[in-house]
């Protein structure tokens, strides 16, 4: 076996729940703590000794390679394989198999492209090798597992079942969930049917278990966050800036704020809570920005209050406007004296006149 396994990154999702952030940008390329989120995943894989990574792309596939190239700037060897038709998680893994260099018994790391985690990658690989498993899964514990697939294990860590999104108390037999990082033996990847959609969660894993394969779980309950919603994405970016979520790719020291080169912040503006102000963005006098992401070229006008929100590239938030838990798409303009709360989303390039909106949504 090679000392450093190669890896597959699944970055083909449309990011529908993240719209309008993902109208022009695939989810893994939305900036978190000043760089595309994917940069954090690549840097963590590199730090764990991974050298060769194949990206399984689909939605807006053309943006990945121009940004990351062959990976040499990160000390990696990157390759790209694009799905023409959606193949699901298992199908995407199988679709890139020809780019792997591993032998049948070698381990291959697989990561979902929308998970921010402090997972000890080396420990997951070691668990896989030491247990002799066919597949090993990173598991984490959550307070409310109803939105996730449960993965109970026996006292040796061996997986005993896969339970999709339980609803009744009787069905919740564990608080361990599939955390979206795996080690597969290469031979298992080659056994996935080619050329059709396959879900590893619903087809591959239960099928392997039914066939008597050894699936091992490793519980690692360090930082873990699914970045599938705008609110989670904003929180993840803030946690990276604050140092709660570990990443070698944060472009600056951890702290209350990250102001990128070329940004302008008025002397009496207040930035806190892991706020990021992007290149060329401007925060005017008296504005208060807390736990939020202000993307490149955006403007927060005087006296505006922005909490737990994301303001897209080139967008403008008018004077004294309040955003709380809101998402403003690229190029949108919100006039002065508006209030958008609780999950409000403003589409790319939208125009909201002065004082037009007092909007709250539970969606």
Unreliable spans:
none
Our Rg estimate from Cα atoms comes to: 21 Å
Any idea what the shape is?
Answer: elongated
What is the averaged pLDDT score?
Answer: 90
Measured distance between first and last alpha carbons: 49 Å
SS strand fraction: 25-35%
Major beta sheet, specifics?
Answer: 7 strands, mixed
Q: Could you estimate the helical fraction of the residues in percent?
A: 10-25%
- Using DSSP, what is the number of strands? 29
Secondary structure blueprint with pairings:
Layout: E1 6-10, E2 31-32, E3 35-36, H1 37-47, E4 52-57, H2 64-68, E5 77-82, H3 88-95, E6 107-112, E7 115-117, H4 121-131, E8 135-141, E9 176-185, H5 186-191, H6 200-210, E10 215-219, E11 224-226, H7 230-242, E12 257-259, E13 264-265, E14 270-272, E15 275-277, E16 282-283, E17 288-290, E18 293-294, E19 299-300, E20 305-307, E21 310-311, E22 316-317, E23 322-324, E24 327-328, E25 333-334, E26 339-341, E27 345-346, E28 351-352, E29 358-360
Parallel strand pairs: 1-4, 1-6, 4-5, 8-10, 12-15, 13-16, 14-17, 15-18, 16-19, 17-20, 18-21, 19-22, 20-23, 21-24, 22-25, 23-26, 24-27, 25-28, 26-29
Antiparallel strand pairs: 2-3, 6-9, 7-11, 8-9
